[in-house]
Amino acid sequence: MYICSKYTFMFRAFKTVGKYILLMKRAFARPERVYMYFKQFIKEVDQLGVSSIGIVLLISFFIGAVITLQIKYNIKSPWMPRWTVGYVTREIMLLEFSSSIMCLILAGKVGSNIASELGTMRVTQQIDALETMGINSASYLILPKIISLVTFIPILVTFSIFAGIIGAFATCWMGGIMMATDLEYGLQYVFQDWFVWCGIIKSLFFAFIIASVSAFFGYTVEGGSIEVGKASTNSVVSNSVLILFADLILSKLLTS
Asked: What pTM, to 2 d.p., does this model score?
């Protein structure tokens, strides 16, 4: 019985992966009208990217402040230089938070948005109407979302880095926990610009995962409004797992 359930799970997993690949093949088909796709791209950039700037700046600011505060209060060894706080804060923001953790947060906001939108269009037969008119609905609805996220999420990562650094300085200025000059020296100490590019490169892969996986769950919804909610939840969970898995592989490849 255990073996039977194991093979059933594997069959469903391979079936889901196959459906995903076939959908991506349709999504990346050549656009019929480039102008219509460009209009949709601009709309998706505003809806998925620009609307996320506020939450990215807010979260990054407070995370930068909290990281600085925690490191300062937990590193009390007299043998540890004071600028270590700035150095560790910089490494955390560049290598993990501004790319990986921020994309996990965006997977919840943006991913659920995409899955819910496409799922609602599926259950209300709007996608069927596009197919009836001879439009490649997968390409028209999914491709602009993927391109817009892949284009804009690296910008959000850059904003997150700067907001985190400002939050770190704000902790020094307002909290008085250490001199801002010590923090500044630590931020500049042995700086490697490749770490910035690592975060941007990783964010490109994470953006594709968020857009494509969320679109897959929303586009393939079967049923009613309850199934749309389940698709939204499944997309967030799957995005989170895939982002963490991709982060493990990319971190090894880019920093080795």
From this structure: 0.89
